[in-house]
Specification:
mainly alpha, 2% strand, elongated
């Protein structure tokens, strides 16, 4: 049981090294078998077994590493793309909804796809956009166009009244 445990820990260490994990993860010395509290001394055949397995499976491990790196989350957008999108955002902050033509132009300028552009604007509005008071008032006026006179709302949660 200990030999299999030691092999699996060693294989995990190799995979971690191939994947480029942190130094703390690469130590692999902090894991001890649950059944036995033996010291982590090197057993006589371990080094030969390790070298033989590394020779035999090194090609497979490098293939696994490449596949793992491909599937890793991409992360942030390129800096120049973020700058271009933020420039547009700052210019149009009061109403940050680009038209289809503007999205196409931004896509060409940044090299991002339409879906990435759309998602960036969705996230940006959710995280950073608060419509201004006059924008809310203008929207309410548009909705209340059929009512004669202005609409007044109390901020303290009272009822609204309509003046004629």
């Amino acid at each position: 049981m200990y030999a299999w445990f030691s092999f699996s820990v060693w294989l995990q260490c190799i995979l971690d090294e191939e994947a480029g994990t942190s130094e703390e993860d690469l130590s692999c010395g902090g894991v001890e078998p649950a059944e036995s509290q033996e010291s982590s001394a090197v057993h006589p055949g371990d080094q030969e077994l390790k070298e033989m397995l590394l020779r035999k499976y090194s090609g497979y491990l490098s293939t696994l590493r490449k596949e793992f790196l491909k599937k890793r989350k991409k992360g942030k957008l390129p800096k120049d793309a973020r700058v271009a999108l933020l420039d547009w955002w700052n210019t149009h902050y009061r109403w940050p909804y680009p038209t289809e033509e503007e999205k196409t132009k931004l896509s060409e300028v940044t090299g991002l796809g339409q879906k990435q552009i759309n998602n960036w604007f969705i996230n940006q509005r959710k995280r950073h956009w608060k419509p201004s008071e006059d924008m809310r008032f203008a929207l309410m006026e548009g909705v209340s166009g059929s009512i004669s006179g202005p609409l007044y709302f109390e901020n303290a949660g009272g009822t609204g009244s309509v003046d004629n």
